[in-house]
């Protein structure tokens, strides 16, 4: 049975950390974020030399699986971004060139050894790249756009399996979000990123969106998910009527019981007397309040009559 494709099968996910162990990424990232001294950078260079070749051997099958050129571009995106950030740290400007040449030397040595067995590694040598494509502080953005291009190519080649995948909706949502995020970067200066589109034989960034639009999920999981959402909405629509009806039924039941007790037990006589007293008191209070209102109304009318006389007098004077 063919394995269903998931989000983690996309190249950007599958190969994302392939170089981390070899370049001791956690160590150098800690140096950058904590702004550590150059002495710590020298330690990192030593660990880089020890680990890079071993990591290359460990992941050689993944690298050779028709993705070598992209994996090597990924390496240089990461390396030159690290070098760019180290150069900006205090005390590193004078030693930057030495760090850079040492790192390039270790990479060159490892790839030269592998090129004796596979000439394809010659394309990964530092001398074979154009440093201008990597060294100006936008390496991360270039890598993200390059990653998207690789993912789109993967989708295009596997569209039928994607559409029948149980994670089809997740894959499409992930790619749509990536497209809109990277498109904003691309539009800021598309000339910088046009070369990356050429790796995937695309003329414009919107061609990525056209391929994403071809994802049309046909799996039963997507249908079941929709049914589940519809059921949830139905339950939510039905819930408020229960919330309203139950208290009303409870109140009606209480009133029926109370009415029954009033008719058949002595309780009703005491209750009636209390109600009658309250009614009498209420009527007396109302009479008193009404009387006070009438008094105030009389005073107000008298005051208003004075005001009316004043207005008439004022208008008469004004007319003269």
Automatic annotation (TrEMBL):
Q: Which organism is it from?
A: Plasmodium ovale
Chain's gene name: PocGH01_00138500
Out of the domains of life, which is the source? Eukaryota
Spell out the protein name for this chain.
PIR protein
For this protein, the parts annotated as crossing the membrane are: 243-264
Instruction: Report keywords, A-Z.
Output: Membrane, Transmembrane, Transmembrane helix
């Amino acid at each position: 049975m063919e394995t269903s494709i998931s989000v983690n099968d996309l190249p950007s996910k599958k190969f994302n950390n392939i170089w981390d162990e070899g370049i001791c990424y956690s160590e150098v990232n800690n140096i950058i974020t904590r702004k550590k001294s150059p002495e710590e950078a020298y330690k990192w260079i030593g660990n880089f030399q020890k680990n890079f070749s071993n990591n290359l051997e460990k992941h050689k099958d993944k690298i050779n699986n028709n993705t070598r050129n992209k994996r090597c571009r990924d390496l240089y995106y990461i390396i030159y971004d690290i070098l760019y950030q180290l150069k900006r740290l205090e005390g590193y400007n004078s030693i930057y060139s030495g760090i850079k040449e040492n790192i390039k030397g270790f990479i060159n040595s490892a790839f030269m050894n592998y090129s004796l067995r596979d000439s394809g590694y010659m394309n990964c040598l530092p001398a074979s790249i154009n440093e201008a494509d990597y060294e100006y502080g936008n390496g991360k953005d270039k890598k993200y756009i390059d990653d998207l291009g690789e993912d789109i190519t993967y989708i295009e080649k596997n569209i039928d399996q994607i559409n029948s995948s149980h994670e089809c909706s997740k894959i499409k949502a992930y790619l749509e979000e990536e497209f809109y995020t990277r498109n904003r970067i691309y539009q800021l200066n598309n000339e910088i990123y046009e070369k990356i589109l050429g790796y995937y034989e695309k003329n414009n960034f919107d061609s990525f969106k056209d391929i994403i639009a071809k994802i049309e999920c046909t799996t039963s999981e997507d249908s079941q998910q929709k049914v589940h959402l519809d059921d949830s909405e139905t339950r939510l629509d039905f819930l408020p009527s229960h919330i309203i009806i139950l208290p009303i039924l409870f109140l009606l039941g209480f009133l029926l019981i109370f009415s029954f007790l009033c008719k058949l037990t002595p309780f009703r006589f005491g209750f009636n007397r209390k109600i009658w007293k309250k009614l009498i008191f209420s009527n007396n209070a109302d009479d008193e309040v009404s009387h006070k209102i009438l008094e105030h109304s009389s005073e107000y009318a008298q005051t208003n009559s004075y005001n009316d006389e004043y207005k008439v007098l004022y208008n008469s004077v004004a007319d003269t």
